[in-house]
Amino acid sequence: xxxxxxxxxxxxxxxxxxxxxxxxxxxxxxxxxxxxxxxxxxxxxxxxxxx
Length: 51
Hints:
Layout: H1 2-18, H2 23-31, H3 34-45
Helix pairs in contact: 1-2, 1-3
């Protein structure tokens, strides 16, 4: 259940980031904003593969 939630959060963040044209802003959105970076880091730590 936790893995599914992490995968859903990761997929949502990536879908939102796909709408950002600037690579620098997209990077900031995914990796600098703590509310976005944390679920991505947790997904990676739990071994949740990109889907």
